[in-house]
Design a protein that fits this description.
By secondary structure, the protein is an alpha/beta fold. It is 39% helix and 16% strand. The chain starts with a strand and ends in a 7-residue tail after the last helix. The protein has twelve helices and ten strands. The strands form two sheets. The chain has a seven-stranded mixed beta sheet, sandwiched between helices. The chain is globular.
Length: 279
Amino acid sequence: MALELDDWGGTGPLLHFACANGFPPETYRKLFARLATRYHVVSLRTRPLIPDEDPKRLTTWRELGDDLARELKVRGRSGVLGVGHSVGGASTLMASAANPGLFRAVVALDPVLITGPRAWAVRLMKLLGRMDRAAIVQGALRRRDRWPSRQEAADAYRERKLFRDWDADCFNDYITHGLVPTPEGDFKLRIPREWEARIFETFPADPWKLIRANAAPTLVLRGEKSDALLPAALARVERELPLAKCDVLPLAAHLFPLEQPRETAERILAFLENLPPEK
């Protein structure tokens, strides 16, 4: 299965961005535009964006990291700057751990990493074969996936807590590119809800063993109000990846790259531009 790389422009070192679950890359256009002032920005067109790709073929997030590594290697790339948000951050860390030298540096924006009671709960559900019954999976499957118009979808989404603090441009880009017209004349989610649910369902039982070999210079940036990367998990990042820099974006939630794209871009640029010289 060959996947395409979408090119977002810019010159300079190659920077790959891996998106969060359910959000097509166009949603991050404003963030990409700022990063492209210094870097050549690309993003992998991942499995959920491939028409007729069966979600059940995905069994673990490690495969998402493998997809990324394979496509970069096929193109002869190494020393890439890997940036990712949420599942994109976690899968980039996994790709870096499994492929030394592929990434010059990694920036993980609120990667989904769990520890303590959350981790034990996931392990138990996986042991029982019940991850498909997890509340977050069932919630994704129940999500409304068709709308008469983009405007009606926008009006409904604006009332939801998830979108309340979004940057206006990012919100408009999501409405424009996250919904696609159907032959029936209405609009449906571009990333099928079955794919969104499958991403949640295939969270690895032990993500830490998949990332601890990461040796690239790394920044893990947590949103202060994030419910995906809790303080205990960020503290574990410091133990598991002692060379990683961990930081917190004040007053920010899990989707801070889409709420504060300018501030997020400045944090990324500041870290990358202060990397030690390559040996």
